[in-house]
Amino acid sequence: MSLDTPRTATRPERLTAHEARQRLEHERGSRLTQLQAMDEAGPDATEQLMAVQKDTIERVLKEIEAAFARVDDGSYGICLGCSAPVPVERLEILPYTRFCVSCQRNAV
Questions:
Q1: CA-to-CA distance for 70 and 24, rounded, in angstroms?
Q2: C-beta separation of 97 from 91 below 8 A
Q3: Where does residue 20 rank: exposed (0-12), middle (13-18), buried (19+ CB within 10 A)?
Q4: First CA to last CA distance, the chain
């Protein structure tokens, strides 16, 4: 099944704000835990790799914070590329996504 496949009748069309916030809180907590572990590891031979990982985690945290803002303004779950609803399945996997699969492919 593709993330572009229409949802079945038993799936909601959109996540509720509460569900979105729960998923985003989980993602944020995971990333903050990763950053804390990296900071506690201190400098060593893998310092460059850790710097790249840290940059990636910080970028994802910015995406998560932007998703919270979209929940607040009511635009969460709406593709920023085509304005269509982002499938719930995609939001469950990547709750901070800004795009549907098709627009994400075009954004790369």
A1: 11
A2: yes
A3: buried
A4: 22
**Assigned token pair, 40:** 């506690």
**Structure-block tokens of residue 104:** 């994400």
Q: pLDDT tens digits, residue range 31-69? A: 888 888 777 766 665 677 778 888 999 999 999 999 999
How far is Cα 105 from Cα 46, in angstroms, rounded to an integer?
Answer: 32
Amino acid at 60: V
Tokens 């269509």: give the residue: 84
Mention every residue, 6+ apart, whose C-beta is less than 8 A from residue 19. Answer: none
Give residue for tokens 């075009």: 106
Torsion of CA 96, 98, 101, 106, to 10 degrees: -140
Question: How many angstroms separate the CA atoms of 61 and 54, rounded?
Answer: 10
85: which strand partners? Answer: 78
Helix (H, G, I), strand (E, B) or coil at 86: coil
